[in-house]
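User: Could you go from structure to sequence for me? I need the amino acid at each position, not a summary. Structure tokens:
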């Protein structure tokens, strides 16, 4: 019979905690609760017809009472603890989820910032190029850049990304264009387990749109050109020249002065956008490192992957006669991102070697899940792009959650349970049903037991 003491477990546990100083768990009466399962095993045995001496029965009874007392002591301790708002602190898993959900929005918005910068730069060149262009710009005082407004689809849609199947939609008043997925090969695709917004995706070989050779029956392109989308980003134009600047420009007498103010305003906007773009990239780099440091499965740089997808799409656009500004800036962004990840990785590595050599036992982790939360909040506060990031993030995580709930749906086969002799537990889709007999029985076992 077990003695109600930690026994052999204690030295092992002490050693484990000594090795992991960053895990702050004290070993005391408040953290150690000893129960045993002897009495439970006795109950099982007695129901199977095994006979016991009265002495044994008494011992098991004592053991049961002790376990009950320990359990109650544990509940009392928990009851007396100061409530902790679990929602305020992100778990490692939540942090990972947040980062993965932000990957696409951050890449999309960075790309959009690049496009906006290119639009403004074009206008700056335009205004100095000819008297005519100058007059046109000063008359209208209109330089439209675009915000991204995400619009969710209620279900995944299989679209084709081939240059022959998308439309390069010219953004009005600019030289930039946007890719529209106009070929909806399976409008409402019921396929599960497909990672949205990226391709190639082998799961899409099973999409209803594909024929026996995995070519699309709708557009005739191969499966690997197709992807699932769960939301679309609409472009919302806004004028760089706001009312205050308009008034200022109009108050100037000579065209020369007007042009000066106009260019100054555009220049300021480019600077602000570039600064935000750098901030976004710096956060993305830190996210990448966090994932790498906390990865259970092999590390996979999802931002890098998604940037590659965007670059592939832009290449098609350039081949189809579009300009290569966005393509070049995306390539530059990927280069910068990769470099910064490398630099930070090296510094993280150096720091951890330093820590080990110091052997101070003080473990300074690079980023904790709450830091991730702070970084996300700092993104939401960005003046030019914060709201767009937040809207995109909300929609992206909502659609992912919706997909997840379809993906994790499992079929409950009542017949199978009956066949295997397991009585149907009181499980309903909403959780445990208290009125169910088996639950009541389970609860009644937990009373101090005498005979
Ligand atoms: Zn499909
Ligand atoms: Zn297709
Ligand atoms: Zn196609």
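Assistant: Here is the amino acid at each position, in order:
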């Amino acid at each position: 019979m077990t003695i109600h003491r930690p026994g052999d477990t204690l030295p092992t546990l002490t050693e484990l905690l000594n090795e992991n100083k960053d895990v702050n768990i004290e070993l005391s009466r408040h953290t150690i609760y000893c129960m045993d399962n002897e009495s439970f095993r006795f109950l099982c045995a007695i129901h199977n017809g095994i006979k016991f001496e009265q002495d044994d029965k008494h011992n098991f009874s004592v053991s049961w009472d002790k376990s009950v007392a320990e359990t109650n002591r544990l509940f009392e301790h928990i009851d007396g603890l100061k409530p902790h708002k679990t929602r305020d602190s992100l778990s490692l898993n939540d942090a990972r989820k947040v980062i993965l959900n932000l990957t696409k929005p951050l890449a999309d918005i960075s790309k959009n910032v690049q496009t906006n910068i290119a639009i403004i730069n074009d206008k700056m060149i335009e205004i100095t190029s000819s008297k005519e262009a100058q007059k046109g710009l000063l008359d209208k005082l209109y330089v439209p850049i675009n915000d991204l407004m995400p619009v969710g689809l209620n279900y995944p849609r299989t679209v084709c990304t081939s240059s022959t199947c998308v439309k390069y939609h010219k953004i009005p008043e600019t030289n930039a264009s946007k890719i529209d997925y106009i070929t909806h090969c399976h409008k409402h695709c019921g396929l599960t387990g497909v990672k949205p917004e990226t391709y190639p995706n082998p799961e899409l070989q099973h999409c209803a749109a594909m024929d026996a050779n995995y070519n699309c029956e709708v557009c005739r392109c191969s499966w690997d050109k197709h992807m699932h989308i769960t939301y679309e980003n609409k472009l919302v134009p806004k004028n760089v020249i706001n009312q205050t600047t308009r008034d200022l420009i109009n108050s100037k007498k000579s065209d020369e002065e007007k042009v000066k103010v106009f260019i100054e305003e555009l220049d300021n906007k480019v600077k602000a956008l570039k600064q935000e773009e750098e901030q976004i990239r710096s956060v993305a780099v830190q996210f990448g490192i966090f994932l790498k440091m906390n990865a259970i499965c092999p590390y996979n740089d999802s931002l890098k992957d998604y940037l590659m997808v965007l670059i592939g799409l832009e290449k098609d656009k350039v081949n189809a006669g579009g300009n290569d500004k966005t393509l070049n800036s995306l390539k530059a962004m990927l280069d910068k991102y990769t470099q910064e990840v490398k630099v930070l990785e090296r510094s993280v590595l150096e720091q951890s070697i330093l820590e080990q050599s110091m052997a101070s036992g003080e473990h300074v982790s690079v980023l904790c899940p709450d830091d991730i939360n702070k970084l996300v909040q700092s993104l939401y506060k960005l003046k030019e792009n914060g709201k767009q990031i937040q809207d995109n993030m909300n929609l992206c995580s909502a659609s992912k959650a919706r997909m997840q709930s379809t993906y994790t749906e499992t079929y409950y086969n009542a017949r199978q349970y009956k066949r295997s002799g397991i009585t149907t537990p009181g499980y309903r889709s909403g959780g445990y049903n208290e009125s169910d007999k088996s639950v009541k029985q389970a609860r009644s076992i937990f009373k101090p037991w005498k005979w």
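One structural detail worth keeping in mind: The chain has a mean pLDDT of 79.
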